[in-house]
Every structure is written in structure tokens, then in C-alpha cells.
Design a protein that fits this description.
Blueprint lengths: L7 E9 L5 E7 L5 H14 L2 E7 L6 H10 L3 E7 L1 E2 L2 E2 L6 E7 L2 H10 L13 E6 L5 E6 L4 E7 H10 L26
Antiparallel strand pairs: 1-2, 2-10, 3-7, 3-8, 4-7, 5-6, 8-9, 9-10
Helix pairs in contact: 1-3
């Protein structure tokens, strides 16, 4: 197993929360795949409470994608229509269905068995843009899979816990992005 060296960089966004709590956004430099992806999903069980998956109206989802949704149906917490989710804002009038699931060991196993890596969450074969959310609904990990882009939004303590699980995440370089992009580093959007 070859672990990815410096898997993320400090992105351009600093998110200030209430009091002294501060979270930084870290962009992934390389896709977590195989064992690294599995470790990431396993660690999310301790950091996150929810999983968000998206099905866009403009792309018909395949039978294999529908099977994933059926396997996860009993963990569904909410289903909503919208044009925006962490990392993405649709530019056209098209909409998507946002599926929010309770994160559990069983859901984690489904997420690990469904794909080889984080950027495999692309329609039509699967639902899109896996996001892992904290109990307050804020993103811990957001992905824009078709663009091979993803980012963490982490407090200092969350970053340290992640580094303990995946030591290859220790090196990063600092750059800046403002929160004015609507929480969308790099301004990623679908047409």
C-alpha cells in the first residue's frame, strides 16, 4: 500500500464560527482511493453524523446507482429538492434530489463497497458528490466528484485526529480563498 504524500493543502477559506472556534478549509490534492478511502470513511464515523448524496435531474441514474439508493433507504433522514449543496451550485434552472442519510457502520460499508475512490461518486453509475456532515449539518468533507475536487472543513482538533488516522495528511501549504464564494472553494458549479 502506497499512502498518498501530502493529500491536501490549506485552501483559501477560513470559516469563523462562534467564539474562538475556527475551521479551515483543506483542498484535496489527490483522490483518496482503496485503503485510504476506506480509512477515511471509517474515521468519518467518529466525526460525522450524516451522509449527503445527490441525484441531478439532468442525468438519468443507472440501475447500479438506484441499487445504492435502495440499500441506503432505511437510513434516509431527509430527501429534499434543490440546486445547491456543499461545493456545488447549479447555474441553470435544473434541480437535484438531495438524500441525507444517518451515518452508521452499515452505511459506511455501503459507501466503501460502492466505489474504489472518492471521485467515483458520479452519475449515472452512482449518486453524486458524497458529502460527510457533522451533527449540526455543516460539511466535514465535501466533494465535486465529476471535477475531481474535494475539500475538508476542519477545526484544529479535527485535523489532528484525521492526521493520526492518515499520517500522510501532515504536510500542507497555505493559500487564501474567501467565504464569499458561498462555501464553494474554486467556485465549482454545474451548468
Amino acid at each position: 500500500l502506497r499512502e498518498i504524500d501530502h493529500i491536501f493543502t490549506l485552501a483559501r477559506s477560513i470559516t469563523y464560527l462562534s467564539g474562538d472556534d475556527m475551521r479551515m478549509t483543506y483542498e484535496l490534492k489527490e483522490e483518496p482511493t482503496g485503503e485510504i478511502y476506506h480509512k477515511l470513511i471509517d474515521h468519518a464515523l467518529f466525526e460525522c453524523r450524516f451522509v449527503l448524496l445527490v441525484v441531478r435531474d439532468s442525468v438519468r441514474i443507472s440501475e447500479s446507482g438506484q441499487l445504492i439508493l435502495r440499500k441506503m433507504k432505511k437510513f434516509l433522514k431527509s430527501k429534499a429538492r434543490g440546486g445547491e449543496w456543499p461545493g456545488t451550485k447549479l447555474l441553470s434552472a435544473s434541480k437535484a434530489t438531495l438524500y441525507k442519510y444517518e451515518l452508521s457502520w452499515e452505511v459506511a460499508e455501503i459507501l466503501k463497497m460502492a466505489v474504489r475512490g472518492l471521485y467515483d461518486w458520479v452519475q449515472p453509475q452512482r449518486p453524486e458528490d458524497l458529502c460527510l456532515l457533522r451533527s449540526d449539518g455543516t460539511p466535514w468533507l465535501a466533494s465535486i466528484a465529476h471535477e475531481k475536487d474535494a475539500y475538508f472543513t476542519l477545526s484544529g482538533e479535527e485535523k489532528q485526529r484525521l492526521i493520526k488516522v492518515l499520517p500522510s495528511l501532515t504536510r500542507h501549504r497555505k493559500t487564501k480563498i474567501g467565504r464569499k464564494t458561498g462555501g464553494v472553494p474554486n467556485g465549482n458549479a454545474h451548468p
